[in-house]
Each structure stands twice: as structure tokens, then as C-alpha cells.
Amino acid sequence: MSAEATSPGVHGRRRGLPRIDLRRLGRAALLGPASRDRLPDAIGHVAEAHRAHFPDADLSVLRRAYVLAEASHRGQYRKSGEPYITHPLAVTLILAELGAETTTLTAAILHDTVEDTDVTLDQVRAEFGEEVRYLVDGVTKLEKVDYGAAAEPETFRKMLVATGNDVRVMSIKLADRLHNMRTLGVMRPEKQERIAKVTRDVLVPLAERLGVQAIKSELEDLVFAILCREDAARTRALISENASAGDALAATADDMRRVLREADISAEVLVRPRHLVSVHRSRLKRGELRGTDFGRLLVLVAEDADCYAVLGELHTCFTPVISEFKDFVAAPKFNLYQSLHTAVVGPDGAVAEVLIRTHQMHKVAEAGVVALGNPYAPGPAAGDPGVEGPDGERVDPTRPGWLSRLLEWQQSAPDPDTFWTTLRADLAQDREITVFRAEGGMLGLPAGATCVDAAYAQYGEAAHRCLGARVGGRLVALGTVLKDGDTVQILLAHDASSGPSPEWLEHARTPAARIAITGWLAAHPDAAALPDASPRPPAAVSAGPRGAVGVVSELPDAPVRLAGCCTPVPPDEITAFQVRGGTVTVHRSECPAVGRMTLKRSPVAVDWAAGDTAECQVTLHAESFGRPRLMADLTDAMSTAGAAIISATVEPPSRQRVKHTYTVQLPDAAMLPGLMSAMRDVPGVYDVSRAQQSAEA
Predict the structure, then answer these.
(1) Chain centre distance of CA 46
(2) Would residue 116 show up in a list of annotated catalytic residues for this protein?
(3) Residues 78, 3: contact at Cβ < 8 Å?
(4) Per-residue confidence (pLDDT) for residue 692, from 0 to 100
(5) Which of 41, 115, 304, 495 is catalytic?
(6) Could you tell me if 360 and 379 are in contact, meaning their C-beta atoms sit under 8 angstroms apart?
(7) pTM score above 0.70
């Protein structure tokens, strides 16, 4: 992972973490390893940072790794002229400062040996074990000689697959890219920009999703300094002009310390300056910045409950900005982040943003998955081998949902260009929601996901048979955008030959859904041309005369007819009215027209003729999702059930739904329940009901 030297100059390196002296390390590296009883001077910085997190760590393995790396890279130099060993040392130091455990640091020292020297993966396994070999292999680039232009995307695919089994692979890659970005200044401007764009599109989102905020923030600043040089220069100048801006926050911090001390809450209140990109975004959002806009206040406590105690005191003793409150303690972000966010107004009207978290939350907020250590370490019980999957393979308990989804869809994107483009688009979706399956379980989806995405996330390619969805128990269109906490039920057709509509691509947000839909449509080019797949004008068919009425009226001489608005059949409860021309019109008692007609006319007593369940006529509404051959299947089912279709109307599809209205003649009213059941069993039909529309008096 060769890189460069001299920094492009960025603002805001974290306090308390002085930059490693590359020249001093270079001289130390040239001196070779130290004696057996002590660590080489060049790795002393790493040992000191590592012991700060792991006081009892065995450093002998780091010594052996350094000896192998230094000997292997001896004679190799970076473009800046520094001995190459300074790069793996700097990468290891970054991870040591974040609290990475010994295995990760060992692999970090060796991460370029297999790629750039004669050291083999078998040698690494023999010397340091399978875990170190796996991590080194995971970050080793694929050769351009073998892959050509596809080398970079295929290398990232390889790393992501390896990260799916062990997130420490990506931890090393992020630290490697951070040091390379710090020393990118010796490269040609066009190469700087190319590397910065990949960092912006891929590495920064990955650092965000893995929760490694310390690396993510610095990478953002380094990318900003290269791709937006003028904006970066203006922002640096703005920060310089407001060098005393921290005084306003410091005064507010003193007031908070006093309030918390009087409340007997043990807490540490710190002023945290915003990094370069954060200041730039604040300026774009707020316009002119005040002193308190150049930083935040960080309150660190011991226990989760103390976070809420601090929040209560601050909201009691200061004026809170309620719209700024967010609780990421009770509902952590998908990248492990936990904290309470609030803002308070000072005496001068300036607003100070406040972050409240425990010391452990702070460690995870800064280092993300790096702070979790070895996911395969033995459990509390002696001899616990760690976590195993169903096939006996180790399973990383830290694998987040977004990574699992990414690993699934990348298998369906064999083309490197498709993978590379889709990866960038996927990583651009930086928020995640959780929806609940009606059958039990949860789905993690990117914000903005629709029912189409939920279908493919739950069923994979079986989602090609999706007919519709219910959200919160209500039928919705497949393009409905889901919200965090929604309950989703996906409805599938029984017909295995069913497939997606081209319209689904307009609603698909996840790569898995888009790749699956595109693949099916490519394999079935004639699907979109099937007659029932596109909107069609209302159609009507008719057959046969109206059947006998079979109603006894108190007006024996008056003609009787069944109302077309509700088409009553025995044994429905019925109500009748005499209308213009003397005809007695019979309605079902629950027909909406009955209520209106009662205001104008007196009901006529009617009843069904005794024992008469002979022929009857009824109007039915069928609601369905659009699909090919739906009308044909419905009419076949009705014919099989013994119904003669008098008329049929099919409305044009609306939001992928189709409404059918059928008036049918039945030889026996007792056949109606069976007919409606047969219609509901037709794939794609989700509701069948008796006609209830209004009718004129």
C-alpha cells in the first residue's frame, strides 16, 4: 500500500495525539532491531500507546512482527525518501492509539509484507497464526498485472468479503488510508484528486458505518483540503480569525461544572473544537458563525443513568433548545454510536451544543469497531471457543446489518464496473432504519427504502413473486417509503412464474433489489409487453338476461326489481322503497342508499319468497395488484364456480392496483360465498366484496 510523504496541510489534528516524527523513526528503522530483551526503539511509540489500553499486553509478538517487517522492507523507500518501514509503523500507531488489540497491531505491522516483499502468507501463518494471516491477506491488494483496470474495485470487493468475516480487516485498511492521505503531498495533483475521490466515496462512508469517527473526521478534512482547496483555505482562515472562540465555550463549561458539582454528579466537561469540514458545514447551514459554533461541549460520566441525570440538570439550570435534543443512548445509531445530544442557550444568547455520554460510549464513538477488540476472544467461561456459525465457521458478532446486505448483493454483481458503481451508491446512503416483519423478526434497511426493498431483503429472488405489501396492517403501494419502526408484511403470489414490473426499478433503493430486478427483466425481455402488464381502458362484456327477482312485496301489483347498487341475494336482509313509476326497488339493508332514501320515502315491507334460492344476480368488486393474465384467471375461476358473467368492468391500474367490477348470474344464491372465496384465491387478488356504491333514488 505504497504512499507518499509531506502533508497537504489540514486543520484540526486531535489534541493529545502528536504526529509521529517520520524522520526520527526512519533513522531508528535503519538501525535495525534492538537486542532480544527489549523492543526496537522505532516501535517504542506503538508499545507505549498499546500499553495505555492493555497494560498486561504481551509485546513480544509485536517485536517479532517488527523484526520481520523491517528486514523485509529494508532498502525500500517511500516517494518522500523515508524508509518504507515508517508507513506500517505509522499505521500500527494509529490503531494502537484507538485501542486495537495485539493481533490487529501485529497484522498492521505486516500488512504490506506479502504485497511488497518476498514474505508469503504461509510464512505469516507459521510465525503468527491464522488470524494474523487472515488479516494480512484481507488488506493485500490484487495485482494489476492479473486484473488490469478491475484491480481496484476487485481489491475492495476482496476486502469487504474479508471484513464480513472479521471487521479488523477494514480497521487496518482505514488506518492505512489515513496515513497515505496524510502523506499524499508528494504525488501529482491529478493522482491526489483520484485517491481523494475514492477516499471520499468509499473509505469515509465505511469509517462512518464502522463508527471509527476519529479516522472518519481526519479523512474528511484531508479529502476536503485536496478536492475543495479554496473552501478549505477560507475555512482555515475563518478558524484562525476566531482563535479565541473557545473562550465562550470555556465559560459555559465552567458554569456546567458548577451546576453538576452542586447536583453531586461526578462528570468531566470538555471543550471539543470542531474539525475543518464540520466548521465548513456549519457555515453553510447558519451563515455567520458565533464563538460557540466552533466547538461542542462534551460531558463524560460513569454510568448510563448519569447521562440522563446530567441532561435533567442542564435542562433545569440552562435554557434548552428542545429541537436539538436527540437520544442515541436509548436508540443507538447503526454504527454503534451512543450519546445524548442537546443544546443550551447562554446568557448572551449564544447556543452551545452538548454531547453527554459515558467514558465507554466515548471510546466506542471515537474508535467504533476498533474499540471492540478481538470478536473471537474466549468468552467469560474458561475454554469458551467464541462464536461459531451453523457450519462451524467463526461468526463476527460485530457484523452490522448494512455489511451483511452489502455482502449479499455483491455476489450478484460479477461485473467490476457494476460493483464499483453500486458500492459507491450504496455507501452514499448514510442512515439506516429498522422495520419489523409481521411474521416476526426485523429487517435493517437504508433510510428511504421502500416495500420493494423490504421484499428483496426478506425473500431474495423469491420477491419476484411479490404482489403487494401491508404496512401497519394496511395495504399500501409497493413504492411506499418505509419509516423506522414500521411493521411490514410482504404478499407473494403462488405462481412461481410471476415476475417484477419495470416500474419496480423506480421504487428500489437498495442494490440487492435493483440488481435482482434488472437481472430478471434482462432474462425476460418480453415480460413488459404482456397484455395485462400495462394500463388498459375500461372493458365490458355481457351475457344473458337478468334473472328472476324472488321477492314478496306488500304491494302485490307493483313491479319489483333488485337495486343494481348493492344487488341483494337471499338470505340478505333487505329494505325496499317505491320509486318513480311505482316500481319497488329492493336494497340490502346496509346499502348506503337506504339511509338517504329513508329521509324521503317510507319503506315498503318485503321479504324473500319462501324456499326461493333460485337464480340470483349479484355485483362484486375485486381489488388486485396488476399482473399479466389476471383478468383471464379471474374469469376462469368465476366460470369454474358456476357463475355466468353479465358484465365486467376493469379500471385502469392506479399505483399498481386494479379494480374489477363483475355482475354475475348464479343458479343458486347459496353459491355466492364459494364464488367469492374462489375469486380471492386467484394470485394477485387481495380483496373481494359485494357492491356498496351509492345509487340514485
Answers:
(1) 36
(2) yes
(3) yes
(4) 65
(5) 115
(6) no
(7) no
